[in-house]
Amino acid sequence: MFEEHLLEVMVSLASGFLAFRYTEKFLYLKAGQRKKALALWLVLYVVGLWLWGQVVEGFMPQAQQSIYGSMANLMAGVLLLVLQRGFFDKNLPRQVFVVVSFWAGWGILKFAASPLAHVLLDVWGPLWQYLLEVAMAREVLSAQSLLAMLEAVNRAAVFVVLFFCRLVQLALLALYLHLIGRHLLPKDYELKPQESLFLLMPCLTALVIDLTLRVMAFSVDNSALMLIYDRAPEILFLLPVASLLLLGLVVSAVILLRGLVQFKEEEQKRQLLEKGMADVHRQVRELEDIYGDIRGLRHDLRGHIESLHAYVDSRLPGEGRELEPYLAGMAKTVARLDFADKTGNAITDIILHQARQQAGKKGIAFEADFHYPKAGDFDVYDISVILSNALQNALEACGQVSSGSVEVRSYQRGGLYFIEVTNDFVGVLQWEQGTEFPVTSKQDKSHHGLGLTNIARCAEKYQGTVDIEIKGKNGRRKFFLTIMLYQRSNLDGEMFEKTHLM
Known about the structure:
Layout: H1 2-24, H2 34-59, H3 62-65, H4 69-87, H5 92-137, H6 143-183, H7 193-217, H8 224-231, H9 235-315, H10 320-335, H11 346-362, E1 365-369, H12 380-398, E2 405-413, E3 416-424, H13 451-460, E4 465-473, E5 476-486, H14 488-501
Parallel strand pairs: 1-2
Antiparallel strand pairs: 2-3, 3-5, 4-5
């Protein structure tokens, strides 16, 4: 009797610990000190299960306690839900899924461990009989001594077998919970009603099958399942496999939902990117027209001012001094139409000009040593997307730093073209699982955080790479973004050589 209570307490502690770890993967913990919260959680969990066990034992007939064992699972689920409400932030869809999936796994795994206990006890019976016969034949112990220790040895053997089976059950539960925790959607994702139902259906199926198996296992004389094992030994193999397959359905539903949500998000991003690229193409065409008009206007105004100077000097030599400030002001205004950066391409000139203006308004130091690639058939649209997105991200990051600075430069090394953007940086980057890019800090993640994705998509056209690094420089934290592109002509040449070598 003592061994049974000890085993139940140990199992309750282990399952309570797994329940806490499982819950904190999907819900935010309220308490500031995790260790204290975990200790209090385990105490309440074990005491709550013990109290419910006492209720079942005291008010239900002995013959019905096993049949209604699923009610214990139900009340344990209610207890887990109450503890979640007390220790974790409210999120009912996630709380319900955590409770139902946990107890579906715990309940159905009992039938994965039950055949193992049956086999081990069947092995122990003949073994114990053989040891008794050997001991009596060799007169190792007297018959009276053997009978005296018979009960103690049997109790110890049963305890060891049950302990091992419970250990297997807990190990399988831990693996099951780990797989769900690894693939379930992040904490900040709000489950929709249809998504919650999609996740709950396989869990509820497992719970119903668990209840059905309990009724079958403990019907009539509480030994129906043992009779089934004896009459159909293949059940010893099929029952654990069926239990594991049921839990596999739960894990598969979690993985499938994550894949569907990620596919939907990627599709939304793709549509936004396509729309953004179309806007960039339109803006580039407009900027080219504006740039051409500005160049023509600048040329005409300079010629007009030179003509005025000549006219004043020749026709109004005495009065010309009064007109000098006016003409100088006009020349200064025309000079403002010149861009500070001469990159070799009108579009990149304008992008850097706009970035300088934004930096000046925000008090951000801006340095540029950027030159449009002279060799290689790079698409101006791709270079524009890379440059504008990189500079926009850098200026936004510097907006959170006092006296921030942005540096941009480009250079060519053989068939490679590099663009480097450096800016001051504060905070911590959180890297998105499965990608090499950090997660955006903005709330609307579906419509933000696309800058680096845009850059990467453009770099892929040239079999290029995007590298991100954060390190100290001059006593400040710096964000280093490096984009490397291959010239298309070189790529075509390499493909031609590989084709002929093959």
